[in-house]
Design brief:
homodimer; 188 residues; alpha+beta; Wheat Germ Agglutinin (Isolectin 2), domain 1; 5-stranded mixed β-sheet; two-stranded antiparallel ribbon; 7 helices; globular
């Protein structure tokens, strides 16, 4: 636990309650997986939980083993890559009753300035995975199919490489770039 | 560099060429940022590059400072949180000519089994950030606005908490869940 807390501070930047809760959730999921399988992770929120998964499992966003599907639920699934069979761990609001400070933080009942985050963290550490439910799930087939990129092209507009399947110009030049303007390129 | 390579092996799992290239790209971007600002990161691909950003900057997916907008380009932007002004670092295919093995890897010209990934990594290490272009960018305003969640509800179907703005039931119960079936919950 102490080692994990140091990892959280270094990687995530601060000891957020969601990271402490997330640590218990990942641990609970891992303990329910059969040994020896190859597991991918799915996270139902982009908040905190992805970092707990990245710190405690081999799954990261960049290596492709962690996918984030934002359903707004504080939950994660670890599943066997080929079959899609796995376990899902979620927070069960019905079990938060005895820990009012955690409940208040979880449902954002108070403004951040009025929350005692240290107390929230301590209550989560006391409770361990008591708030969490676990269930068996199986991923839908279309979610397991890996989309392998076949070929890359050079975009005639931005001159950068992009997946040929995206069209004759890249998605950014098709209007999806989040930039207002790009100034003169250095070195041109 | 040696320290980074150890971090890559531990976090990402293996020394992928994209992680070595990504390390140079993040370093190049950081060196072009004014001191003292607060910077967020945007990554235009989910492949490898997000992990280089997470290892070398304070920005992670879980702390909300790294966003992935999949445009299919191997590029990243570091930008000042408030103004959206920043620098974008990208791979310039025109500069890959002298390194045929890197070019072949980058454009996926050969099947993976025929690639000499050790040679690709060595050539990237030799070239440093030579493949990379850098440009000034500014993010569109709508991308900078932080969507703060206001309230959470308990979903009457799954009994889990979800952002009240999502509707009367959660997005998962609205049909977005990637699961085939969920079996009996433990403890119920």
């Amino acid at each position: 636990m102490e080692e994990y807390i140091e990892m959280v501070k270094s990687f995530h930047g601060h000891l957020a309650p969601g990271m402490v809760l997330g640590g218990f959730m990942v641990d609970l999921a891992m303990r329910h997986l059969p040994d020896g399988g190859l597991y991918d992770a799915l996270c139902e929120t982009p908040k905190c939980l992805p970092d707990a998964i990245q710190l405690l499992t081999p799954c990261t966003v960049g290596n492709g083993w962690l996918k984030i599907v934002n359903l707004g639920r504080f939950a994660l699934t670890m599943y066997e890559k080929e079959t899609g069979k796995g376990v899902r761990v979620f927070v069960d609001p019905a079990r938060l009753g005895p820990w009012p400070e955690v409940r208040s933080w979880f449902f954002k009942l108070k403004p951040k300035a009025e929350q005692d985050l240290g107390l929230v963290v301590r209550q989560i550490q006391e409770a361990g995975d008591h708030f969490c439910g676990i269930e068996s799930v199986r991923l839908r087939l279309e979610f397991l199919e890996r989309r392998r990129r076949k070929a890359f092209s050079v975009c005639p507009l931005c001159q950068e490489s992009f997946p040929a399947d995206d069209g004759t110009i890249c998605l950014a030049c098709q209007g999806q770039a989040p930039y207002l303007l790009s100034e003169v390129r250095e070195g041109d």
